[in-house]
Amino acid sequence: MQAILDATASQGEPIQELLVTHGKIPVLVEELIAVEMWKQKVFPVLCRLEDFKPLNTFPIYMVVHHEASIINLLETVFFHKEVCESAEDTVLDLVDYCHRKLTLLVARSGDSGPPEDDESRYSTPMQELQKQAELMEFEIALKALSVLRYITDCVDSLSLSTLSRMLSTHNLPCLLVELLEHSPWSRREGVCWFLSPGKLQQFEGSRWQTVAPSEQQKLSKLDGQVWIALYNLLLSPETRARYCLTSFAKGQLLKLRAFLTDTLLDQLPNLADLQSFLTQLALAEPQPPKKDLILEQIPEIWERLERENRGKWQAIAKYQLRHVFSPSEQDLRLQARRWAETYRLDVLEAVAPERPRCAYCSAEASKRCSRCQNEWYCCRECQVKHWEKHGKACVLAAQGDRAK
């Protein structure tokens, strides 16, 4: 967390230099994939256990949140090319991770996006945790998109195995076209087919925000990340020599021409080169799939973790239920104190890009809970309505502060 804050605030010695010098990028990638595997393999088993009735879901939430913290840090530091290079062989694993997240994003593009706050739907702590996990998974996928774009900035220094993984195994250019088509970070709210198209909303800052009509032609950050990644993957000399433009790939890529408007080209002038490439592609004959026999490196973190723990997921879930997710009141207070020290609110507020939001209605807030100092509210009425959900956490946080 401190690394994220330092990198965001650009204070002190650049955090990316410390991560590179001490060889911590591969460690972060492995930790990221380990938490992802835990969420897929252990957490569902844990929830099905008969004696899984947690009095407090904070410990589980912090495990789920750990993946978001790591990908947030990687997004912040991967902007620097030396960080990508220091990932060494684990960049293959990171490419696979990003591909999994983006595939999930495309698969869910028919939905309306992450869940909104609905008090009637989330009445129990576990239901609330599930809502938070769904929202977090959506945000993690968006962070993975940015990380992937930064990796494509380094195509000139990536290994042949990594390029092959991106272009042949995963066919990332076609996946990025799918993302542009569906744009899961944008939606229309209040659509009525015979009256109006509804208000355009974009997911930004962990929530859906309505875009003013005068701003709707402006390129969003996430759309920009997709276009830059496509530019890198299609026009870099290293990738053009290795990407097989089959009839399927040709058909998918030519869909981009409909998006390359004059307004877009004014905002990203370099896309004029991509437009010329697509014009030439339309006249070219598709290439047959390549069948070259080559030896290439493959990602190993996911496979190794799965191999080492295959058949043990139930035992792991039972062990964690007893020793990790069933803490005593005293242990819970100690954990609350450690979390309070880790997520220092004064520092978080110093680097926050916008004013705090009301925990109940999401309006801009100016009042903070006087007991725990963690939640913000716009008025007393919202604080009273939110107390049923916030009360237990508030008491726990206050006890943790007194224990210091």
From TrEMBL:
Its main location: membrane. It is found in: Apical cell membrane; Cytoplasm, Cytoskeleton, Microtubule organizing center, Centrosome, Centriolar satellite; Dynein axonemal particle. InterPro entries: ZMYND10, Znf_MYND. The keyword Zinc-finger applies. Interacts (via C-terminus) with DNAAF11 (via CS domain); this interaction stabilizes DNAAF11 at the protein level. Interacts (via C-terminus) with DNAL1; this interaction stabilizes DNAL1 at the protein level. Interacts with DNAAF4, HSPA8, IQUB, RUVBL2 and DYNTL5. PROSITE patterns: ZF_MYND_1, ZF_MYND_2. Belongs to the ZMYND10 family. This is Zinc finger MYND domain-containing protein 10. GO terms for cellular component: apical plasma membrane; centriolar satellite; dynein axonemal particle. Residues 358-394 form the MYND-type domain. Gene3D superfamilies: 6.10.140.2220. The keyword Cell membrane applies. It holds the Pfam family zf-MYND. GO terms for molecular function: zinc ion binding. One of its GO terms (biological process) is outer dynein arm assembly. It comes from Equus asinus (Donkey). Keywords: Cell membrane, Cytoplasm, Cytoskeleton, Membrane, Metal-binding, Zinc, Zinc-finger. Plays a role in axonemal structure organization and motility. Involved in axonemal pre-assembly of inner and outer dynein arms (IDA and ODA, respectively) for proper axoneme building for cilia motility. May act by indirectly regulating transcription of dynein proteins.
